[in-house]
Amino acid sequence: MKVYVSADMEGVTGVVDAEDVQPPGRDYERGRVLMTEDVNAAVRGAYAAGATAVLVNDAHGPMRNLLPELLDPRARLIKGRPKPMGMMEGLTPEYDAALCVGFHARAGVLGVLSHSYMGHEIEDMWLDDRVTGEIGMFHAAAAAYGVPLALLTGDDAACDEATAWDPAIATVPVKFAKDRFAAQLVPVGEAREAIETTTAAALTDLRLAKHEPGQHTLAVRWQSASVASHLTAIPGVSRRDDRTVVVEADTLQLYRLFNLFLRVCSSVTSNPPYC
């Protein structure tokens, strides 16, 4: 069994603030350790369930967060950016399951460090007219590959978002949101044990989400009309209004196009995250 892990940081055990997850934040280096150990718990659970290979993709921010010297040596790591498929770089149909570790709720939800991909640059996203964020996009693209999303860890808001997309996803809430930068934390040891045991259990009962082939529609509403204006230079992208762009393609092409959107947005704006 081959297992793929996408590792974000905002939903990691113990972190609640931008200082915890963004360099050069005063607690960022500590946050890197917490992130790596949450991933290690998932890797242990995967191997306990019979995994023969685990690939981990560092999917947060600079994508250079996980500490290779602390990572379980049985795992292989994708580190750095840019990557054409961003948070799901390296995932292919040969994998038997995908795990999302340290994920967070979408923009507009009262979850810890909630946002959609870019701090505050994205106001809303819709996939086939259903409001979405990083979790819904990952779930749809994994299903298009034929790979079930077996597990997600994060705060309670992220876990609720995942099961709303697919009740078959096993979730591990490692904290409970009190506000966007405050949470009641699950003790670190307890959280990691839950990640390990839930991962092992989830990988014994894999169910693939239904995927509708063909064309799908992605709409993104940006904070800046300038971003929307620049994106219309991409063939197939149109504007619904001054700040909302729309594009149609198959699911995997939409995911890749969206990662191109993010690179364009980064070049047009210079706003810090989590404002």
Number of helices: 7
Strand order of the largest sheet: 3-2-1-4-7-8-9
Unreliable sequence segments: none
SSE order: EHHEEEEEHEHEEHEHEEH
The shape is globular
- Report the average pLDDT across residues: 96
Helix content: 25-40%
CATH class of the domain at 2-116 and 133-202: Alpha Beta
What structural class do helix, strand and pairing data support?
alpha/beta
The name of the CATH architecture of the domain at 2-116 and 133-202 is: 3-Layer(aba) Sandwich
Strand content is: 25-35%
Could you tell me the radius of gyration in angstroms? 17 Å
The description of the largest β-sheet is: 7 strands, mixed
What is the CATH topology of the domain at 2-116 and 133-202? Answer: Rossmann fold
Number-wise, the strands total 12
Calculate the terminal CA-CA distance, rounded to whole Å: 42 Å
> CATH superfamily membership of the domain at 2-116 and 133-202, which one?
Dipeptide transport protein
Tell me what you see in this structure.
It is an enzyme of class 3 (hydrolase). Zn(2+) 1 binds at residues 8, 10. Its EC number is 3.4.11.-. It comes from Kribbella solani. Helix 2 runs parallel beside helix 5 (188-202) and helix 6 (225-231) packs across helix 7. This protein has a domain at 2-116 and 133-202: 3-Layer(aba) Sandwich (Rossmann fold). Strands 3-2-1-4-7-8-9 form a seven-stranded mixed sheet, sandwiched between helices. The chain has a five-stranded antiparallel sheet with strand order 6-5-10-12-11. The protein is built from seven helices and twelve strands. Strand 11 and strand 12 (244-249) form a beta hairpin. The mean pLDDT is 96. It has helices at 18-21, 28-48, 134-145, 156-165, 188-202, 225-231, 251-268; strands at 2-7, 53-58, 75-78, 97-103, 122-127, 130-131, 149-155, 170-179, 182-185, 216-222, 238-241, 244-249. With 275 residues, the chain is an alpha/beta fold.
